[in-house]
Amino acid sequence: MAERLARVLNVPAAYMYCENEVLAAIILELGTLNKDTRINILQQVKNLNQSS
After folding, report:
1. CB of 1 within 8 A of CB of 9?
2. Spatial CB neighbours of 14, under 8 Å, sequence gap ≥ 6
3. Taking CA 45 as the corner, what is the angle to CA 47 and CA 50, rounded to the nearest 5 degrees?
4. What are the angstrom distances between the C-alpha of 37 and each of 9, 13, 20, 22, 42?
């Protein structure tokens, strides 16, 4: 049901399940980017996590 609604709203399905406002906003933004850019951002986030 949530996946069908996500398609109608043109948002990633993961957005429908997200309980955190900030993470939901990130999911929406990432959903607009191409795959290569998302992979690049994921690597940058992993690097941030390792340096903290």
Report:
1. no
2. 27
3. 35
4. 23, 19, 23, 20, 9
Place of tokens 């390792």: 50
Q: CA torsion 40→33→12→6, rounded to 10°?
A: 180
Predicted TM-score of the model (pTM): 0.80
List C-alpha distances in Å: 4 to 19, 37, 41, 43, 51. Answer: 18, 26, 27, 30, 39
Block means of pLDDT (10 residues each) for the chain, 52 residues, are 94 96 97 97 93 74
pLDDT given at position 51: 80
